[in-house]
Amino acid sequence: MAKIHGTAGGTRYLLNGTRPIHGKNLTTLKDIIRFLDDYPEILAEAEKVEEKRQDDIILALEERETQLNQQLKDDIEKRTREVYTHILKINDRIDESDSFFMILVYIIWFWGANLVSSYRIHLPFIGAKWSIERFKKHKGKTIAEKPDNIRSAGKNITETQQFLSRNNSLLLNAKEEEEVISVLSTLPDEYQVLSGVNLHFFDPIYWCKRKDKVRYNQIDHIVIGPTGLFLVGTKSWKGSDIEIKTDDLKRQVRLANFTLWCHMKDEYKFYEKNPKIRCAIVSIHGSHPDLKIDKFIDVIALSRICEYITKGENTLSEMSIHKLVHLIPFRETH
Asked: Domain 187-327's class?
């Protein structure tokens, strides 16, 4: 089987537009399709998991609040015993004193101690009481925000579903691109398939045929093997549509051919020739046999693309194939 490099452009765009689901990124078109098929269950499960998490948080807060209240109660009881033990000792001194003057002093002391007893008991715990009040407010806020947090848990899921729905036509194209990749993967082991090739030019290249400057171009697939270098585009149009839209197709293919040639030319010495680029459009819905929209552009049915690629004479060595694979840029997802 041929070795597959990169990810189809449509698939990569869709993957990069999705959000993590249950903390994990979608990484393949199969993941996207599975997500769409199971969307209601995935959303319900996310909300169920978040609801349980919120309940666990609230239960933990309630348990902590109970602990804090019990600790405060125990500390106040202990402090109360200490304060009233001190007051009782003053009372004992009144009974034990023989001096009228000292008795008067102890009575005043006893009266003052009783007067400020509540203050002395509760003063050390004002900070703790404030902390408990803040904790209660935090718990109340958590309880109030529970419905919003449950809805937010499904935010990534709903946003991903909405994004994919908005790009449904691109999803269909991505499926077709992946179908082409699947077929190309059945080529012999010597072949390499590059998908989602992005060519960027820091200095724009001038396309004299269109009198236009080009900074960027994307190519669906490039196949490299013993029989040559193939630029493969994917179209879901019917054969009749392809014939009607010939001019647009020619422009797309010629631009892809030109940008790929420009990207490669600086890597070959003056005595070397750029590998010849053969251009083919894969018609997903079939095409007329041997349909040509241009002298150098063939339209091939998906079922015949592997035969089309392998039927020619060998023109590239193993070293040349290896060089081209490392020369042409392709990107994986994320």
From this structure: alpha beta
Mean pLDDT by groups of 10 residues along the chain of 334 residues: 89 91 88 94 90 93 94 94 91 84 87 90 91 94 91 88 93 90 94 92 80 86 94 75 70 89 75 77 69 78 91 90 87 53
Query: pTM to 2 decimals?
Result: 0.69
User: Domain coordinates of the chain in residue numbers?
Assistant: 42-155, 187-327
CB neighbour list of residue 237: distance below 8 Å, 6 or more residues apart: 245, 283, 285
C-alpha atoms less than 13 angstroms from C-alpha of 132 in its C-beta half-sphere: 17
> How far apart (Å, rounded) are the C-alpha atoms in residues 94 and 96?
6
Q: How far is residue 321's CA from residue 228's CA, in Å, rounded to a whole number? A: 9
Burial per residue of 154-174, b for 16 or more beta-carbon CB atoms within 10 angstroms, e otherwise: bebbeebbeebeebeebbebb
What is the C-alpha to C-alpha distance for residues 196 and 332, in angstroms, rounded to an integer?
Answer: 8
* Beta carbons within 10 angstroms of residue 221's beta carbon: 26
Q: How many CB atoms lie within 10 A of CB 283?
A: 24
